[in-house]
């Protein structure tokens, strides 16, 4: 039984080290290897992954063309769906919250922040 605990500790420590290393790798800029338009060995920025948000509404959440409920619906997101969030804007107040998230990574439209739990920090959209 002692051997199982030691193996579990080693596995836990290794998993933590791998997770930490993967985060450091994701934040490390890529080095170009002579790609067109770049000098060999030059450093180029790697776009960071977009923050994600989880739909916490009880009913399907409408994706809107603009940050208002009067805007046309572009579709719906089901409760529990996790989607990429590009940025946030001030829009129509929905139940005391005037923030809306613009969707990213190929998604078009806005969702009311009142019904989306951001899973990471989301910056305001640039004008």
List keywords for this structure.
alpha+beta, globular, two-stranded antiparallel ribbon, 20% helix, 2 domains, five-stranded antiparallel β-sheet
How would you characterize the overall build of this protein?
It is a single chain. By secondary structure, this protein is of the alpha+beta class. It folds into two domains: 43 residues, no CATH class; 67 residues, Roll (SH3 type barrels), CATH 2.30.30.40. The protein is 20% helix and 34% strand. It has a five-stranded antiparallel β-sheet with strand order 8-7-6-3-9, with no helix packed on it. It has a two-stranded antiparallel sheet with strand order 1-2. The longest helix has 26 residues. The protein starts with a helix and ends in a 9-residue tail after the last strand.
Outline the fold blueprint:
Elements: H1 2-27, E1 30-31, E2 43-44, E3 52-55, E4 61-64, E5 73-77, E6 82-94, E7 97-103, E8 110-112, E9 116-118
Antiparallel strand pairs: 1-2, 3-6, 3-9, 4-5, 6-7, 7-8
What's a quick, concise take on this entry?
This protein has one helix and nine strands.
Count of individual domains: 2
The CATH homologous superfamily name of the largest domain equals SH3 Domains
SSE run: HEEEEEEEEE
- Terminus-to-terminus distance: 61 Å
Residue stretches low in confidence (pLDDT < 50, at least 5 long) are: 1-42
The main sheet comes to: 5 strands, antiparallel
What is the residue-averaged pLDDT? 76
Radius of gyration, in angstroms, nearest whole number:
21 Å
